[in-house]
Amino acid sequence: MKKRVLSMTSFFLIVVLVMAGCTGKDSPANEDGSKTAQEDNGKSQTSNITSWDSPDLSWKKSTEPVSFDTYIDFDWYQLDTWGKDDVSKEITKRTGVSLNVTKSSDLNQLQVLIAANELPDLVFTSNLVERFYNPDIAYPLDELIKKYTPEMMNLLDPVEIANNTQPDGHFYALKTHYNNDAAWNDPRNLPSPGDPGFYVREDIMQELGNPPLESMEDLLNIYKMVKEKHPDMIVYLPHPTWTNPLMEMMGLTGQSPYVDADGKVHVGFNNPGFAEYFKYMNTLFREGYLSAESFAYKPEQFSQIMKSGNVFSASYNAGLADDINKVYDENSIKAHLVPVLKALTYKGEAKLKPVDASVGWASLFVPKTNKNPERAIKYIEFLKSPEGDALTQWGIEGKHYTLNADKLLVRPEGFNELKVTDTGIGPWYFEASGLGEGVATSSGALSNPKYSSSVDLLKFRKKLYERNPALAFVKPKADTDEFNINVKLTELYTNARVEIITAPSEEEAMKRYEKMMSDANKIGMDKLETYMNEAYQEALKKYKK
Amino acid sequence: MNSTQKFWKRFQNQKFYQICALMGIGYLLVFAYVPMVGLIIAFKNFKLSSGIPGFFTSEWVGFKWFSEFVHDINFWQIIRNTVVISLLKIVFTFPIPILFAITLNEVRKEGLKRFAQTASYLPHFISWVVVSGMLFSFLNSQNGVINQLLMNFGLIDKPLSFLASADYFWPMLVLSDIWKEMGWWTIIFLAAIAGIDPTLHEAAVVDGAGRMQRILYVTLPSIKPTIIVVLILALGNLFGGGLGGSNFEQAYLLGNPVNNSVSEIIQTYTLKMGLAQGRYSYATAIGLIQSVISLTLILISNYSAKKASGVGLF
Fold first, then answer.
1. β-strands A402-403, A409-410: how paired?
2. Which of A251, A500, B11, B171 fits as disulfide partner to A351, beta carbons 3.0 to 4.6 Å?
3. Which ranges carry the ABC transmembrane type-1 domain (chain B) (predicted)?
4. Which of A296, A498, A519 sits opposite B163 (nearest CB)?
């Protein structure tokens, strides 16, 4: 009988232990006996190499095959299979590295991976990156560099290091698409294609006799004419999630923090100019130029409606007109979108001044669960090198491009028909430089002049840009009160802005606006702004050094 | 033979059934009771970086997260939405399958009955993601079929903004839930009706009862225990969405910034402000509040049902 009791107890124990085994994962680095960077602390090295062209770069010396499980935290990412396209094959050929990619399917997936200590070897993300600024979760890159690729410290831009260095003195990633001043001032360079753009239909403007479009007031007048002439047409369709360029025209930054005339940082929607913006947008809504439904669309529904050819003006990223015009042409729809290349005035004043924190976008982290941090940092060194940057952002030289006298990319014939799944140009750029992307974008005017209005738009915006890297440091750290306040303010703004814009009268819109501001104060906007200002002043000191 | 020996003898005789039951208990223990240990973090300052051990090592913060939720500026709005949506769905979706089952039972043409039953339960197998896409196609104001029909019949002058109006959100949830789940729950009530002793109906016919009277005095009283058990289960899952259990899916997929004032419910708020931000302690505290309310509801409804009709779950 005792045996039976024992076997029953054992059965339950086994079940519970098996389940417990599912929840935890020992560090693979320990499993295979390889040492972690921390175990070898103190073995940091220095190097005399001062050029990315050196044959002695660390990545060039370790090219045995290695595979990294990689998590890409963007559900919209174009590729999630390694080794089927030209670029990924070439990376493996040159470095020995291949990736086993998992693409995010849910915005909570990464949080769960962190909590369960089941992070893969590499993580590429721009969401809640503050969670990775923790030596228990990710390797500080500076430690890995000092130990395995010491020459990188000589080759990296000190400002880039400063941009990414956290208060604990380490940097855990080097954000993509960073531009230093020299790179930004390169005439080939352009702002990100993700920049907002405002578009109108050129064909309808001609039909209306090309009325003047110099101001937001002119725009209202044009909308009125369109509504009269084409009552069934959607007059203005903003992208449901993108920064609104009309807001930018009024000198506003949405939720992003801004610096006032006294040098104080504020939460974006705390800008008093928002009252006028909301009044304007509310007018568009009440006059029937903008529908409430446009805020309810999913991005793919926005795209579907744009392609129908029944929209007069729209706003989204810099590439909207090129993408949609292509669809119009392919489907013989007689329509043509053009970007508005003017800073429209409001009440006689032009305020368009895009602000860029200039520190970059997404981060490639090496979690502590990485099974081979040495090869990981060497792979990062390759990606960071001009060779890796050109390969991932431009393609294979001779096959996908040649450089002309202006150092712009000349694409071979038929290149525009190739798919990204064949070429692999773009998606594997985990350490992309801003200049590399800028060159690829501006070269689009050479290879595909018919669909290159984004280049004109970005060139126009570049002239107005203001760069302020210290602003990148005002974001509160995870798990702090200020972080929670920031999250709640973002949620408040996201919902309240729509309620304000869709108010039945201007008076009601202003009432709702005041309620939003009062709620923001209740949530703790003051406390957040105090934190932001302290962080901003600290960051300014860093850049003055 | 002492009592222990008797027990093992009985166990030996029922070995197969006992093992089946034990496997069920084991499943519940592992997947329902062991995870409850995690509720501890509702009272702690759990940080993601501390991983699973952090459940036990992180500092106690008492009712901090509960207090934060209760003092949230949206608290009453979220509670109102959760309660109203749940009640609307119970009130409107619960009786429909009963009525439909009775109606189907009265249909004499076997082919028609089968067709109606199959057609009504097939939507149950369509996921809410697909249903939300279908609703967009049918209801949008640009080229939605419903708006075009209403305009063609001259019932409206301009398209109605079903998807972007707080006024239509709750009716849209209730109607789509009825459409999707009615047929599925009808099966249970049809099975209960099939189990009614036919002699009861025969006796009623002999007594001169008409069709309506037989429904009222034979069919309904006979399926009352089934109705009560299903009602208790639905009430227990009141905040989850009652029979269909679809509150989260509907609010998440059909909710948008325009109808947020009526679509934000406890579950979507937990996802947005808790899980998506990595605030697991906060999310657990909100989830626990909902669980406690749901448990209270199931206990009250079971007690009331037992008092009123003598039928209860436990």
1. antiparallel
2. A251
3. 79-301
4. A296
